[in-house]
Amino acid sequence: MSYLVLARKCRPQKFEDVVGQKPIIRILQNALQRKRVAHAMIFSGVRGVGKTTLARIMAKALNCHNPAEAPCDHCPSCAEIKAGNSIDLHEIDGASNRGIQEIRELKENLRFLPARERYKIIIIDEVHMLTTEAFNALLKTLEEPPEYIFFMFATTELHKVPLTILSRCQRYELKRISFAELVSHFEKIAAQEGVKIAPAALEIIAREADGSVRDGLSLLDQIFSFGGENVTEEDLSQVLGLVDNRIFAKLSAALLAADLAEALKLLNDGYEQGMNIKRFAQGLLQYFRSLLICKTCQKPGAILDVSDREMSDLRELSAKYSMATLSRVFDILFKGLEDMRHSSYPRTSLEMIFIKAAHVGEIAPVSDLLGRLDALLTTESTQLPLPHRPASPSPQTSANYHDDVSLDKSRAPKIPKPEGHETESEPVPDVDGVSSKLGQTDKSEIDAEVSPQPEENLVPLSEAKALQRDWNGFIAHVRERKKWMSSALELSDKASESNGELVIKFDDSSECLYLQESENIKLLTEFAQDFFQKELVVKIVARDGKGADEQGLDTPQEERRTLARDPRVEMTVEVLGGQVAGIRTGPRSR
What we know:
Blueprint: H1 6-9, H2 22-33, E1 40-44, H3 51-63, H4 76-83, E2 89-93, H5 100-109, E3 120-125, H6 132-143, E4 149-155, H7 163-166, E5 170-173, H8 179-193, E6 196-197, H9 199-209, H10 213-227, E7 230-231, H11 233-239, H12 245-256, H13 260-272, H14 277-296, H15 308-318, H16 323-340, H17 346-358, H18 366-382, E8 405-406, E9 423-424, E10 428-429, E11 435-436, E12 441-442, H19 467-479, H20 483-490, E13 494-498, E14 501-506, H21 518-532, E15 537-542, H22 556-564, H23 567-576
Parallel strand pairs: 1-4, 1-5, 2-3, 3-4, 6-7, 14-15
Antiparallel strand pairs: 8-13, 9-12, 10-11, 13-14
């Protein structure tokens, strides 16, 4: 007799022999005991998980002569089905008998009673391959079959089966076999065959089987033929081109540690052993996927189907690096493998991928760069104001209101002081750090600077906070919520509170253009009410005619400041590299 491969030799003949699928086996056994077996069943799942095997076991159980042990596997009916010569079991390949004519012939045979057993069993493998016409021809018979007929379908692509067929069947969706169950099953088979195989080699075969018992048995068949009575990890590498996950652990550690020389050496060693480059690259990608899952999930064992040794290695390596680093390396590998599929030089492509991955630590993520820029802008706005940008406002005195705040700006000119004093010229550095002077300052003229009023003399606006004392704090409060809004407030010239209104004045309407929008006014009002703890209505005004308050310029001092900020004056100062020493208004200036 010719050699029988392990996939056929080790095919389960009873429910107890089936690997995995415990919930489905329990349902089928209970249905047999309670005589509630559906007249049509469909088994779905990936290759090699037991779809056709369960259908045959159910056929044996239905016609078994020992119902208490069904299937007993030794009665005449079970023996005939096991040998494949049962008259009342019709097993059809849906891929080669997919037309309407074959289904019509099947329906003709269904009119006759079983020749020897109680039931006639129809098993259609790969049922999704039937044509639409064949499915339609089967509908009526499938819905109301004779009482002696049972249909059992098997498919790897359940979504291709018409809904009209699915609605007439009980569905059983088989899962992939777990890693631990595969290792245990293959170990038993190796013992039955008298072959001693290394545990690490069994783990490699179970991983390559990817949940399929039949695929794993095919690999075992090959390695048994090569290794004889003893099978090692080196045998798997030489014969099948499979490698242990430990090489992926070493390679991943080398890439993450930027040890490019070690990574290329590991790749070369595997290449010389005859491994498949593309399969090797896919294994490395899957290993980084496992690292990411270990990094993000509290219970990675529920997702990753690996041994305890591999899980320990994954946890240890993933704990050493951040989520961002692991993600960037994974992205490089993923995109590189997509390009590698179409490359005529896969090894060279993989080496270039390693070079990129090894240098991932030198690349600063965009989030870090934005964070540094944000910190730099914050420092600059609070400590190093740019030219023509106001410094942080400080409380100033006012002749009219106790809650009036005048905001000093770096570009404000110095007004001539009262006459009768000596004149002196004071060099002021320009933008480039070069000291120059444009004119002489008369100490007899009035200075535009106003000394701040001592904080203890302030009269608070409310029990919570006072505008004059806490204006800087209010700007900081706004900065934490809207940084651009706080920068705009720093450009303001004056802030005052009267009759429940917080009036913020600007010299130039362009400085408060966005603040004057209704949504921003509403948001700023909420900030003010939240900070000052009183009902305030924010009003933004400008003095250049666009949104300006109707009262015009309040004081001669403000008039001089407005003249100093005239664009023509600013351009002249910038071109000449000097400063405005004094501004005179009124009849004397003419």
